[in-house]
Amino acid sequence: MNIDMIRAAAERLSGHARRTPFLNSPFIDDIAGRRVWVKPECLQHTGSFKFRGAWSALSAMDDAQRSGGVVAFSSGNHAQGVAYAAKLHGVAAVIVMPSDSPALKIANTRAFGAEVILYDRETENREEIGADLSAKRGLTLIKPFDEPQVIAGQGTCGLEIAEQAAQAGVTKADVIVCCGGGGLTSGIALALEAEAPGLRARPAEPEGFDDVARSLRSGGIERNNRSAGNICDAILTPQPGDITFPILHRLCGPGLVVSEHDVLAAMGHAFNRLKVVAEPGGAAALAAALFRQDEIDGEDVIVTISGGNVDAPMFQRALETL
Amino acid sequence: MNIDMIRAAAERLSGHARRTPFLNSPFIDDIAGRRVWVKPECLQHTGSFKFRGAWSALSAMDDAQRSGGVVAFSSGNHAQGVAYAAKLHGVAAVIVMPSDSPALKIANTRAFGAEVILYDRETENREEIGADLSAKRGLTLIKPFDEPQVIAGQGTCGLEIAEQAAQAGVTKADVIVCCGGGGLTSGIALALEAEAPGLRARPAEPEGFDDVARSLRSGGIERNNRSAGNICDAILTPQPGDITFPILHRLCGPGLVVSEHDVLAAMGHAFNRLKVVAEPGGAAALAAALFRQDEIDGEDVIVTISGGNVDAPMFQRALETL
User: Fold this and answer.
1) ipTM for the predicted complex
2) Which SUPFAM superfamilies does the UniProt entry name for this protein (chains A, B) (predicted)?
3) What is the third-level CATH fold of B3-49+148-319?
């Protein structure tokens, strides 16, 4: 896992993934007490950065492997990223989703052209279903984060941040990244190390799911006690990955931990001031910039808005914070 | 008023206005029955394209004129554009706004450092108030649309559309533009004439405020019967301008007229599928692409989302259409 893989992924993604803009607002700056630069990956295809990693993984396969089709486990952003990237590559995708997933997410994944296989969380094991599918149908598994070509794809977001920060005159700043398993955070950290050494990645996580922040402190992989029960559904991963954690440990600054209320308020400010739609897990980094400002140094801070796949009732809760 | 003025404005805006992206979604395409490309000017500074025209006008003034300060009358977006562009130029701005403007627009205009003077849309004439202030206080009036340097600034959006459409492989399409007085529409039309002759501008307006559509049909300037009473506050202009109309008449295809319900539904789809915040007047063109598809030809259509300055209660109405 190295910068050359990220640069190669950037070439494969060129003309396929969107180069998302670099936004700011004087009103956001006022709240945060410093200049805040926002990388809105909610504007990426499928509404999250996950399209980058999915495209990277699919485009890195040889023809024989790719034409056999791919499989992924996810009920969320990785599912949509893999389904759409596979559709654009003209190959079959099977997404294994829990049968109690929201109907809209199942419908969206199918609308991106994927075959959805539902399983019962209580009685079935998704790894067994996947292994069975892989063996019987020759599908290649695309893991959500602990997979080098996926990390390389997410790292292309970091290459863009390095360029856009330089254009904005920002040479020294923390780059706060919404963090689940650490695919986006580790990819960005590697890109910044090579292209913008004055910029330092820092993970943002929800309260109660701060496995990465604790792992960075202890120096070893720590797990969360719970697997659900927070609005930031996109980043509720049990623990950092075996590939991502050593990168995070070597390159990242301390983790930032945010409350559900602060996440909703950050979604409201993104609506009001940046005119973009952030989902709860995608607003964690902005929440940290706005409401954990004492834990941040410097005149500038950069944040990712990693996704915007939120349903209307949850977004209404964010609007009510305004 | 010509393409050279737009190109000169693009040079003055470079590094100051944002180059907004070019978005699309397969879900939006399915509804519209063709490929839909979206130019989200809601992501421009101050949340609308108006920053382009304001920066163009201010940057075109000589030092003596600019340092005397500026005045503008506006329902909100031109107000914010002028206020922020004036602040960035370090000069005073007085903004004359209707008293029924969205609270966010009035608050923002004040927050950008401008002096705000409110008037009653039904009983007072904003042109007279503006002319009076200009005479008494030596301020230079920046008209919202019927002003060559403002049209030149808005036209820079058209230069970007021409480039981005070519990159997307789109050489022939209607470009539907949310239209009030016609500043953005005429600027885009002039830019397309020079840079992308296969692209044709078409105005989109709300029902009951279709002065431009009627004027294009009759060949002369037609007025609206009402001046208020539609959610599309940003584009409720009494009639096309003396400078904009001849350009619109020479270059535009037929106008498209949309209902308030369709505008709210378009805002909902922009939230759900594009992850951007559109205000009612800014969603008129997308509403036309989605719900007036029989009046559009071709495999592709391009639309502007011209602004995103909407209060939470109105946005909630849009979410309820989903």
Assistant:
1) 0.96
2) Tryptophan synthase beta subunit-like PLP-dependent enzymes
3) Rossmann fold (3.40.50)
